[in-house]
Structures are given as C-alpha cells and as structure tokens.
TrEMBL record:
This is Formylglycine-generating enzyme, required for sulfatase activity, contains SUMF1/FGE domain. Residues 382-628 form the Sulfatase-modifying factor enzyme-like domain. The keyword Signal applies. It comes from the Bacteria. Residues 279-375 form the SbsA Ig-like domain. Keywords: Signal.
Length: 634
C-alpha cells in the first residue's frame, strides 16, 4: 500500500505539470518575430532590439511560455542576446524557434555615412484644405528609404505623407529614421483673395491737405471667409498708383474715382468729393449775459472740428486771465473752460476765443471772439429736519374716497430732511441750464419762486440726481427710477439711500401733519385750508409763489394745495397692516401724488387724500419737493 500511495502521488504531479505544459504547447499556433528596425549604424552603440509574440489560434498572446523551449539563433548559433550591436558592417540572420513554430528575419549594421533626404512634390500650396503636397524620403543616392520613417511638421509628428492645410504660413518638414534625420524642408501655404470690396469712412473731404478719407478693403479668401486686407494700393481710373496708404488727403477740390489693387486683383470703384473748406466761426456760446452759478463751465460751440485748441480760450476777470483747464468735446464741436477755482460772486467775466485757434480745415478766426457774463451763487433749497416717529396713516374721517383708507399704524425709524417748499422755477432753471435742457413751460404765470410745473415723475428724479451730484452725494436713483444705495445697488431700504430723492408716502404725510409736533388738523397746519393753501376757491386758476400762506408745525409750506406733489412710491391700496420705513409696493405702473393743487376742491387738499398717475404724465398741476435720509453717526 505504501508503494501504491507513492506511485499515485507521482502520477498526480506528472499529470498536473505535464497536462499544463501540454496545454500551452497545444495552444501555440503562430509566432511573430519583431525588431525595432532593420538597419542600424555600425558604431557599437546603435541597437537592434528583438522581441517576439506567440499567439493561439484566435490571435490571443500566450503568457505561460516555457522560455527554456525558446531557441534564438543568430547566424545559426544559439544566443541569449535579444539586443544586437556591432562596430562592423555586418548582416545578421535571426531565427526564433518554439516547439514546432519558427520565425526568421535579417538585419544589418552599416558604417557608411548615408543621409536621409526628403523630397516634396511642390513647395507652395493653396491653403484651401484640398490642394496637397506629397512628402517622400530617399537616401543620398536617390534610392527609396526602406526603413521606418517618421515625419514631423513644425515639430509635431504626422501620420501621413500627404500635407494639406487651410492655414496660411510657412511650414517646416523633417524626417527621422532611427538615428538618421533629414535636412529641413520648407512648405509655403498661401492665400488667394477675390471679391474685393473697397469702402470709405466718408464721401466728402476738405481740400486742405489735412482732412483725411480713410479706406478699408475686404475680400473672401480661398476658404470663402471674409478677410480684412491692409497692404493694398489705391489706383485711379487709369490704373495709376495714387497711394500705398489707406488714408488720402488732397488740396485740390473736385471729384475723384479710385479703386484698390491687391495681388493682381481689383476692387470696386469709389467716388468721393473734395470740397473747399468752410469758414471757421462760432455757432453758440454759454452763458449769454445772464447770472449763473459759481461752478459753471464756460462753453463755446464752433461750426467745425478743432485741430489745435491749446491756449485758444481764456476767461478774464478785471482784464487778467483766471486759471482753469480747457477741454474739447468732438461730438458737439465745443470748447469748455473749467475754472480751477469757483468763480467770484457778483463779478463780470469776459470770455475770449483767440484767433490763433486752428480748425480741422486749417482755417482760423479773422478776429478774437469775445462775450461777457455775470455770476451769482446757486440758490440753495431750504429743508426742514423731521425727527423719527410714528403716526396713524390714512383717512380717519371716513369722508374721502376708499383709496385713502383704511387707517394703519406707520413707523419711521430714522430722521430725514424734506423741502420747506415745493421746488421752484428759479432753482429748477439752474438745473436745466446746467444740463443744457429746454426751459420748462411756466404756462405764462411767471417763474422765480412759483412752484415748477409741467414735470413727469422721471423729470423730477433727473433733477434730484443732479442736486445730489452738486452736493457731492451719491445719486438716489438709477436710470430706470429704482432707488439705489451709495454703492449704486438697487435697494428698498430707504435708510441706505443717501442722495436727494422724492419723499416716500409715509414721510410726506408725517411731515405734513407736523411730525412729532403734530396737531390733529385736516390740512397741513390748520383746519382752514384757505389759511395754509391755494386751492380752487382762492387761487384764481393758477399757481402762486411758495411760502405765501401759513406753514405747519414744522415750518413747512404749501403741503395743501398750490401743486400736486409727486411721491417716490408706486401706487397700491392700503392693507391696514402697520408700515415700517415703507417705500410702497415693489411693483406698479402708477405713482402716488399728494397735497392737491390750485385747481383742487377742498377735500382733495386734505393731508390724507391720495391720487395716482402714470409717471410719464406732465401737466400744469404737478410739481414736487425734495427729501433726503439723514445718515446716522456711528
């Protein structure tokens, strides 16, 4: 039994190892002999590396190969060297045997200093993506290079010997095979432009040798893409070269017809007219013998552009020039003088535009142009401080239309300023003159200290932003009429709005009622509307100068009657819910008005009466007053 057990173990081992070997041997169906190159330099360093691949009948490489059964023969002699080197000219026959499989090849080492060369079917190619160049390789004897060659174009390996491109420019071609590298070949990819289209920036030019007409040339390249062309030549109708520059000047009046030439192609014709320069003259100037504020810029508008305005404009006080900076607005053709210091109050100034100033047409004034103006300081707007507080908002009498009710508690948690009177014409006119806007129509009733009328809601915020700028405050509104904070961000937190603005609805009613000094009156400061305001029964159908009736408890005038006052808030119905620092509904197409006007019946001038209108409405009944949040000191 002992011997039988040993024989069983031996047979098991033989079956295990023998079967495994027999399986690999059975699976091996093909063998490939692989080398990195067939020719190498006979310098003792260049190498030819031998590798192999044994596969089953499905072409899958076998991994469990008994390398003892693998025989490598070099020139018929067994060898273990799978890397060949040689210092002599020599040919090696390589044979690899595995089981019944056999693979053979030949390689050689050469000492001769042969060169790898490239040849190109042509050296210029149209960059249209279809024109092509064939790249080939030979040795220095012109024989085909048989070893593996890799091509590089501009340093990047390419997989084909056919070159085409849509990009113009110079390309460098190099071939490499083992340690051999060819000299560089050069390929030029060129463009072809047609459909040339010549344009000019204008069709008229002054015949002064200075004014320019500038041309641009475009065309389509070989790929159908639009191209801007710079290096073109301008030629006349006879084909004579006129200019290699894209800009032309002339001193001779007349009509000219030219076209562009570019690499044998011609563009369309352009006709332009060269005119005699017009005379240099003053169109308008500001101010015109009237009082202005102390920070006014002096402006002179000319009939043509100015080429040289340095030292061309001066302002004289008592015959001596004042300091300041001259600027020029090309769009309006206007010179501006910005005084270095505020102008002196109640003084006469003389403005002199010197004849030395040069226009773009090289003309000059025949004589100095002068005018005078007188200065007064800008009139300030009086305001009243309203301390924070709370009150009942809305109609408590039940006699007004439902839009003015129900009542609700309102809280204002900050101090603010409000205009002592509505904004008057004399103040608003300073804004229109400063901004070069038309004067607002006063309906023939007079200006000065009458409340300004005929304003839309948007007109008022233009004035308020201007006023903020004059007092070095950030604007309160953006161009769409949204409230903005000191950083220019939209906000509904009125305490963050630092510039001048319209009062909110709760600010207006609280101030009209006298704020924390309030007495229960129907109108602003009295139960007798005739004592405090102008309305339909006493106004004779027109506005009146402000502050001619009694003020309320805070010293504020004209909050009942005279003109309806635009309010900051969008229109919305009262909810009966308490309001804290409210700026009204977030959205809405209408704006609130308060106070009534010279044309209103008595009930409409009550402090709690509300009305609404489109912010684009303007009429003789509508004006406004200013407000501003007082920044808290922290």
């Amino acid at each position: 039994m002992k011997y039988i057990r040993k024989i069983g173990i031996i047979l098991s081992l033989l079956i295990l190892f023998g079967f495994s070997y027999g399986q690999d041997d059975f699976k091996a169906k093909s063998m490939k002999l692989m080398i990195n190159k067939t020719t190498a330099l006979a310098d003792g360093q260049d190498e030819i590396k031998i590798t192999y691949r044994i596969e089953d009948d499905n072409g899958v490489p076998l991994r469990n190969i008994d390398k003892k059964e693998l025989n490598l023969l070099i020139n018929g002699v067994e060898s273990n060297e799978f890397v060949l080197r040689s210092s002599e000219n020599k040919t090696f026959e390589i044979t690899l045997i595995y089981g019944g499989l056999r693979a053979e090849t030949k390689v050689k080492f050469v000492k001769e200093n042969k060169k790898l060369r490239i040849y190109l079917s042509k050296t210029r190619i149209l960059a249209d993506g279809t024109d092509e160049i064939i790249i080939g390789t030979t040795d220095d004897q012109g024989n085909k290079w048989n070893d593996r060659v890799t091509l590089y174009i501009d340093g990047e390996e390419v997989s084909t010997n056919v070159f085409k491109t849509k990009k113009t420019g110079e390309y460098t071609v190099v071939a490499r095979s083992g340690k051999f590298e060819s000299e560089k070949g050069k390929i030029t990819a060129y463009e072809k432009i047609n459909a040339l289209n010549l344009k000019s920036d204008k069709v008229k030019v002054l015949a002064n040798g200075v004014d320019k007409i500038t041309f641009t040339l475009e065309g389509k390249d070989q790929n159908g893409l639009n191209r801007k062309i710079n290096d073109f030549i301008l030629v006349d109708i006879q084909g004579k070269n006129i200019s290699e520059s894209a800009a032309l000047t002339t001193k001779n009046p007349g009509n000219y017809k030219i076209r562009a030439a570019y690499k044998g192609e011609y563009s369309n014709y352009i006709t332009y007219n060269s005119e005699e320069p017009k005379k240099f003259s003053v169109v308008s100037y500001y101010p015109v013998k009237e009082t202005i504020n102390l920070n006014t810029e002096i402006e002179v508008e000319l009939n043509t552009e100015v080429k040289d305005y340095r030292n061309g404009l001066e302002i004289l006080l008592n015959g001596k020039p004042i300091q300041g900076m001259i600027t020029y607005d090309k769009n309006s053709k206007s010179l501006h003088f910005i005084p270095a210091h505020p102008l002196k109050l109640n003084s006469k100034y003389k403005v002199r535009l010197k004849k030395s100033i040069v226009g773009i047409d090289e003309n000059k004034l025949k004589n100095d142009f002068t005018f005078e103006f007188e200065t007064v300081s800008r009139k300030d707007i009086d305001t009243v401080k309203v301390e924070r507080g709370s009150f009942i908002l809305g109609d408590q009498t039940g006699q007004l239309w439902k839009f003015s009710s129900p009542v609700q508690d309102a809280f204002i948690e900050y101090d603010y300023l409000i205009g002592k009177t509505p904004v008057t014409f004399d103040i608003y006119d300073q804004y229109t003159r400063d901004m070069k806007l038309p004067l607002v129509d006063d309906n023939g009733w007079g200006r000065k200290t009458r409340p300004v009328i005929n304003l839309t809601w948007f007109d008022t915020i233009g004035f308020l932003n201007w006023l903020s700028q004059k007092e070095n405050l950030p604007p309160a509104y953006d161009s769409d009429g949204n409230l903005i904070d000191s950083h220019g961000n939209k906000t509904r937190d009125i305490t963050k709005v630092m510039g001048y603005r319209l009062p909110t609805e709760i600010e207006w009613e609280f101030a009209g009622k006298g704020g924390v000094r309030s007495k229960p009156t129907l109108f602003s400061g009295s139960n007798d509307v005739g004592a405090v305001g102008w309305y339909s029964e006493n106004s004779k159908g027109k506005t009146h100068e402000v502050a001619t009736k009694m003020p309320n408890e805070l010293g504020i005038y004209d909050m009942s009657g005279n003109v309806w006052e635009w309010i900051n808030d969008n229109s919305g119905v009262y909810s009966g819910i308490e309001r804290i620092n409210s700026v009204g509904p977030k959205n809405g197409s209408l704006k609130i008005l308060r106070g009534g006007s010279f044309n209103s019946i008595m009930s409409d001038t009550q402090l709690t009466f509300r009305d609404e209108l489109s912010p684009n409405t303007k009429d003789i009944y509508y004006g406004f007053r200013i407000a501003r949040t007082i920044r808290e000191e922290r």
